Amino acid sequence: MTLGVLKMCMKTTFRTLTTVFAAVVFGPSGPAAGEVRYAVTNTNLPGYFSTARSLNDSGAVAGVGTGSAGASLAYVRYPDGTLRTFPELAALGFEVQTSCSINDSAVVAVTAAGYVGGIFTSRAFVIGPGGVVSVPPLSGTYTDAAAINASGHVTGRSDAPFSSLRAYLFTGGSPVDLGQIEPPFGTNIRATAMNDLDHVVGVGDTSSGGLSGFLWNSTMHSLGTFQPTGINEAGWVCGRQIIGGVLRAVVRSPDGSYITLPTLGGRSNAALGINSAGEVVGSSQRADGSSGGFLWRDGQITDIETLLDRAARASDWRITSAEAVNDRGQILAFSGFGPLLLTGHEDCPADFNGDGGIDGVDVHHFFASWESGSPLADVNHDGGVDGADVEVFMTVWSNGGC
């Protein structure tokens, strides 16, 4: 008998014994395993306190890092882990401020501060294969960038006539004034998001001095007290609204009806991003008063921390909010210390040591973690390490995987 055949026989015998062990101790019906869980990738700019609110469908994250001396850099973290900053803005005498957005072609829109015509102001820039393009204002010197779509069109806020600020749409080299929500009233109107159809949402002041949301789809539409933060290609809009004196996450359907999303057990929440499938992410107060990121999918709201994979939970990652969700289902979240990219995968416990094989070494590593009470051994994701985890592990291991 060759050494390879002997090893195969030992492996088969060991697997048979463990299958019998699982069946005798736990019975024939074990919990299903292999459900999708989220792996966590840190996407901050090293050495900087980072914020990021834009995520494209390839998983590239765009954000802004602020150094200890106060200087800020726009950056993009690509799926392969490489980082890009934008020295071309510094070469123009501009320093990035707090916004940076990226589209699926990796074209970036940023807001930076510098001198224009001798006046210190903010200016939106588009950075792509064609170089750096400055977004001109409707009037005066000021523009900012809130979002960029697949066509490279940009929306934001601009100086406008009569000392006002108006939402604009930048296409074809010039900005379009989106107008007032309640003409002739409103001197401060800003865009918050746009879709690939050039539909823009945002908020602005009204005749009464309050705030109103808007939807612009070549015509301005008032959304009343609903304040939108995102819009998908089908026209679903997510945002927030004061209801009963409490801030609540709300979704608006294309027919104009509204859905108020449940919280994670606390009083308030707010929706921050929506993808083409209608999945919504945001921030919610939990029952204990802490802030958590949520995912709303198929009519159900879930605390994103409970969806992290075993490795992420063993590293004790905390999710305080979720800023964006792309069409692949990846989530851009915030930990309180920086942005995180969450990517779904099958978190199968059978290959416990992650070496690509399912054998006795996985059993050894599982029980070592289980005996020490490590969160890695919580393979049924119920928050505890107990006999139920042994049942799940032995069932999937004996079946050769999930």
At CATH level 3, the topology of the domain at 86-222 is: Neuraminidase
Mean of the pLDDT scores?
Answer: 90
Strand content: 35-45%
Number of strands: 28
Structural category: mainly beta
- Radius of gyration in whole Å, from Cα? 25 Å
Q: How are the strands of the biggest sheet laid out side by side?
A: 1-28-27-26
Q: Uncertain regions: pLDDT < 50 for 5+ in a row? A: 1-32
Largest sheet, if any? 4 strands, antiparallel
Fourth-level CATH superfamily of the domain at 86-222: TolB, C-terminal domain
How many distinct helices? 5
Oligomeric state as shown? single chain
* Spatial gap, N to C terminus: 32 Å
The portion of residues assigned to helices is: 10-25%
What is the CATH-assigned architecture of the domain at 86-222? 6 Propeller
Describe the secondary-structure layout.
Elements: H1 3-26, E1 36-42, E2 49-55, E3 61-66, E4 72-77, E5 83-85, H2 87-91, E6 95-102, E7 108-116, E8 119-128, E9 131-134, E10 143-148, E11 154-160, E12 164-171, E13 174-177, E14 189-194, E15 200-205, E16 211-216, E17 220-222, E18 227-231, E19 237-243, E20 246-252, E21 258-260, E22 265-274, E23 280-286, E24 291-297, E25 300-303, H3 310-314, E26 321-325, E27 331-334, E28 339-346, H4 360-372, H5 387-398
Antiparallel strand pairs: 1-28, 2-3, 3-4, 4-5, 6-7, 7-8, 8-9, 10-11, 11-12, 12-13, 14-15, 15-16, 16-17, 18-19, 19-20, 20-21, 22-23, 23-24, 24-25, 26-27, 27-28
Helix pairs in contact: 1-5, 4-5
